[in-house]
Amino acid sequence: MNGPRIELISSGSELLNGGTVNRHAQALGAALDAEGYTLSRDTTIGDQAEEIRDALSEALDRAEVVVFSGGLGPTGDDLTRGVVAEMLGCGVVMHEPSRLRIVERYRFRRKPLNNLVEQHALVVEQAEVLDNAAGLAPGELLRIGGAVLFLLPGPPSEFQAILTDHVMPFLRKRWPCSPVRTIKFHVAGLGESDLLARMHEAKFPFEEINPSFRASPGQVLLTLTHPDEARLTHAGELVQSLLTVRELVALSHDTVASVVADLLTGSGQTLAVAESCTGGGLGEQLTALPGSSRFFVGGVIAYANAVKESLLDVPAELLADQGAVSGPVAAAMAVGVRTRLGADWGVSITGVAGPGGGTDDKPVGLVYIGVAGPEGSVVREIRFGGSRSSIRNFAMRAALNLLREHLVGGCVSMRGRVE
Questions:
Q1: Distance CA 78, CA 1 (A)
Q2: Which residue of 35, 108, 226, 328 shows the fewest CB atoms closer than 10 Å?
Q3: Whole-angstrom Cα distance, residue 282 to residue 256?
């Protein structure tokens, strides 16, 4: 293991009862991993003082660094400061610079200030105070015996801000660590066992590099890790040679949406989308990307057949003959949105997301994706399993991947082809 032993404790009853998703381990683990450190343990506890005290005592005995999140607010269940102060035999005091920053923040926003809000600025008397650029309660750094304890606010944006601004710089200075080099492959259309079988057949150097696999809906993330850049690059090139254009969706920390955005922006081309069963989700993914206005023209949510006819010029006869969930209609939607919005590329999604509405001929999970470009249109039929939400997410990812394939030249001719 590289560097110090690092543990995370997240406090909050809402994390245990399902009221809030705990994102702290993901944020901390990713930040540590990127710089060669390892998160050794992740513990989630409630708001009781005894639980906080016991969890802290145990973690501080095991680890050199403990990151504790939550319980720094002004309400009755925010007990972290008091418990830590009691453990150290000191008090809790008002940190005047933090209080003044809170006052100024409220003045700027023209919001009334009360004493309860100012209690965010309370800190353990022996703490080194860490500015919070994203919220009210500052972070705190304490040295307890041979260990370092960080107290961070619970809200994810504030946790991330102090992690980035203070925790990681402290670790770099106190325990310099060489980052472990990694290559990540986002692979679609192959299961873990299929990908592993190809790697065995190609004599991948498993004795040198131990690959890790993480399956997610419709995709597998393969991660290769090694300190030697040359060996890692060689192994990465071998894996890349085993994957087709359709299968290799993205490398490193890219997503299929960001890859499509880069391809469109780099070539000066534009995109419009027509969505039925995904209800605007694809457009939302694209516009969430910084700089999306450079390539994304707009979209049409064509849920009803009448909208498909009036806004996308899908012939009524085609809808009556083939049905809304069909290859020809998907192609017509893609062509229609491309033409109507004046884009270089049009992408369409139509399908049966469920849980109802399926038939023997068109079951739940059946999705047609259309892509229309300068040389014609292509449609892909895919059948997904899972919940309504999963099917919609699968469909959006598959639509972007089909477009990506054609943007990088994965098809010789697209004219009227159904896959």
A1: 34
A2: 108
A3: 12
* Of 376, 380, 374, the residue nearest 400 (C-alpha): 380
Confidence at 138, pLDDT banded by 50, 70, 90 = very high
Degrees to nearest 5, angle at CA 15 with 13 and 19: 90
Closest CA to 310 of 333, 281, 277, 342: 333
- For the chain, the straight-line distance linking the first and the last C-alpha, in angstroms and rounded, comes to 47
Q: Give the pTM.
A: 0.72
| H/E stretch holding 15 | helix 13-16
Q: The tokens of 384 are what?
A: 């997904």
- Average pLDDT for 14-36: 92
Distance, CA of 230 to CA of 367 (rounded, Å): 42
- The residue type found at 262 is D
CB atoms within 10 A of CB 54: 13
**Long-range residue pairs from 203-212, CB within 8 A, at least 24 positions apart, any chain:** 204/235, 204/238, 204/239, 205/231, 205/235, 208/235, 209/235
What is the rounded CA–CA span in Å between residue 117 and residue 348?
49
Domains and CATH numbers, the chain: 6-174 (3.40.980.10), 181-251 (3.30.70.2860), 256-418 (3.90.950.20)
Query: What pLDDT was estimated at residue 121?
Result: 96
> For the residues of 217-245, what is the DSSP string, one character each?
TTEEEEEEEES-HHHHHHHHHHHHHTS-T
Token pair of 272 as six digits: 């419009």
- Return d(Cα 192, Cα 211) in angstroms, integer: 11
User: Measuring CA to CA, how many Å separate 292 from each of 145, 171, 258, 295, 335?
Assistant: 50, 35, 10, 6, 21
CA distances from 143 to 66, 146, 147 (A): 10, 7, 6
DSSP H stretches of helix in 163-273? 168-174, 192-201, 229-241, 256-267
